[in-house]
Each structure stands twice: as structure tokens, then as C-alpha cells.
Amino acid sequence: MADTAVSGFAEGFAEGVPCWVDAQLSDVEAGKRFYGELFGWTFDEGEGPQAGRYAQAYSEGRAVAALAPKRDGRMPTVWNVYFATPDAYALARRIKHEGGQLVREPMPVGTAGTLALAADPEGAVFGLWQAGTHPGFGKRGEPDSFCWTEVYSRDKDLVDPFYESVFGYGGTDLADAGDDFRTWSPAGTAPGPDTAIGGRSLVAGKFPAEMPAHFLIYFNVTDCDAVAATARRLGGRLRAEPFDIPYGRMAVITDDQGAVFAVLQDPEP
Fold it and tell me: What is the residue range of the signal peptide feature (predicted)?
């Protein structure tokens, strides 16, 4: 996360709620061109020691994401999701106690906040964010902004208790998916679709055996097919062509540098 002023950002987020996403890319300038045309994002390099390297993205003047340069070419090209917390150090201790690992111990990022990277017991990586001057999303759940995330796992008996203990989530298995898909709601809310902020999907049999556990983030769009066609024109690839689900129409896209994300069009009224 970059040090930045609060303009364009929303208020704070409850613990365990996705509050930010960023893409780790080899070429940030190329990323700006791809996502700028795909979603209409504009970019601000921010202020402070990371200026010129960590490019924050805006939609309608509100913060939606960021593009960051990979510090090491061996690092994966990937979209990361960050979960809000009022105390990154305490949450990091819970993660280790429940069988997770810390990829990066909590560290202050200027006055913006405190950052950490963790991995669940299957190795899926996610971020923690304790807000300072950077609360997180200024726009979400609207076109061209983040709307959902889910972790793809193979062992629900290992992964579900981890997240539900670490974040206090209430879980709900979807009736039409059995235990293959489970949604999570923040602590203190009634579990269910109206409060869900993310979920877990089982990948056994659906993906190659060598595919590691991972998070997939979704961006809301007004026209899934048009966005998919634009992504292909810009040099991206479609991992999953547009298809209908009970919650709208979606596609899974790999950008022109290899970062994977999904887009979701709301269902027709």
C-alpha cells in the first residue's frame, strides 16, 4: 500500500472485510495501459518514497486498486486481496496460532497503515491491512471496481476452520452447491448472502493438480462479454469464456502479463 491522502477513499472496514487489492506486475506502465483501457481507470503515482512505483487506480475519482512492480522477477504475477484489521500484529499472531504462515511480518508503510502478507494452511496468500491515512476502497461493488473474492482450496476441513477462527467469519454452504462452495460473513453479522463478503470454493477435479490454492478477485462490470473481448484485444487471454451463474454473468481473464482475475456482470432485473 502506498502513502496517500484520504481524498477518494471510503471510511474504515470491519475486520475480515476485503478493503484493497493490488496487482504485482513486471511492467507497471504496461499494466496502466491494459487496465486503463479495460476498466477506464486513471492512475496517480501517490506521494512519498514509493512515488513513481506504486500506481493507484481510480474510477470516477474514487480509489479502486493499485498496480505494483514486482521486487523480484521470481515472484508471481498476481492480484492480491487485503483484509481489514484494527491490529495487524494481533491478527498475525492468530494466523500463526491457527496453522497459517506469515509471508511478510507486519510492517508500517509510512502513515498509510500497516501491511502484512499471510498464507493459509494450504498456501493461499492474502494480505492484511491496518488502515492509517489509507482506509482502502473508495468505490466497490459498482462497475469497474472490486466486488468479490474467493479462495480456491482442496481441503475444506482444513481451510474453513482456519478462516472462521482467524476472522470470526460465519459460514454458509450454498444450497445448490453442497459443500463445494461456502460464503463467509463478518463476525457480528447474520451469515447469509446479504452479508457475505467472500467465500471458499473447492477445486478438486476442476483444475490441474499442480494448481496451488489461491484467491481469485472479481471486478464488477456492466457488460461481461464486451470486457472479455476487450481483454483479448489488449493481449489478455480468457481462462474461462463468459458464462452465466445464479449471480450474473462472469468470465475469468489473464491479463497481458499473466495476472488472473474475474469479471462479473450483475444479473438482469
Answer: none
